[in-house]
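Please fill in the sequence for the structure shown.

STRUCTURE ENCODING:
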């Protein structure tokens, strides 16, 4: 039985909405960033650049990558930490008595897999081991790659600024030791970790009716691992 287009939209509304917002905001960021970049160019007595040139520039790339890497670090840490760490009363936490990776029966792997379980969940061996950690592995890989991209783009952008000021450019390794790189990195990390800590703790005492990120409105503050 075919699924209607409207049903497909409804069933994928969360992913589609956030993907669309991402593209819209990225375009807006690039447009505002271009204006700001050209203002700086004018102050330095240099010519303005076009939109495509700016989007392909290291100045735009480093601004985007420094945010991406911190976001994926946030999710990586949260995904891995919640296997072993708990917060009583938070819907973002497992029950305090259920820390760890769970049994094969609980995780529906190997001989406990269901007929419609993913093939690698049934396969056993290295394939199940990899699939069992695939979310963290992919998030970690994206984090490392985006952090690497940030460092490369940042080194290029920093060197371009140095040359405009008649100073020597820096190598990638030299840039990794500079305050500019760590200032860009750490200011994003602290904000992401604050956001996670706030979500974990505030969700103990506050509610958002109908959200799976919140406990039911009438759930006790001490209720853990329940969602509304």
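FILLED IN BY: designer on duty
SEQUENCE:
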């Amino acid at each position: 039985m075919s699924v209607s287009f409207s049903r497909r939209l409804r069933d994928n509304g969360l992913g589609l909405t956030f993907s669309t917002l991402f593209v819209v905001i990225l375009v807006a960021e690039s447009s505002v960033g271009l204006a700001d970049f050209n203002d700086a160019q004018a102050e330095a007595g240099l010519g303005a650049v076009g939109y495509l040139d700016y989007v392909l520039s290291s100045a735009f790339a480093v601004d985007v990558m420094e945010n991406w890497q911190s976001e994926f670090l946030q999710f990586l840490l949260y995904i891995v930490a919640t296997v072993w760490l708990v917060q009583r009363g938070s819907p973002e936490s497992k029950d305090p008595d259920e820390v760890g990776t769970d049994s094969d029966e609980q995780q529906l792997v190997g001989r406990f897999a269901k007929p419609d379980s993913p093939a690698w969940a049934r396969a056993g061996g290295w394939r199940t081991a990899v699939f069992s950690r695939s979310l963290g592995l992919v998030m970690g890989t994206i984090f490392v790659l985006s952090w690497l991209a940030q460092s490369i783009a940042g080194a290029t952008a920093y060197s371009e600024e140095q040359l405009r000021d008649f100073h020597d450019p820096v190598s990638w390794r030299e840039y990794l030791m500079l305050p500019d790189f760590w200032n860009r990195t750490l200011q994003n990390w602290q904000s992401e970790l604050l956001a996670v800590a706030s979500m974990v703790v505030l969700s103990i005492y506050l509610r958002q009716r109908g959200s799976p990120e919140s406990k039911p409105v009438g759930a006790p503050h001490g209720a853990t691992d329940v969602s509304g």
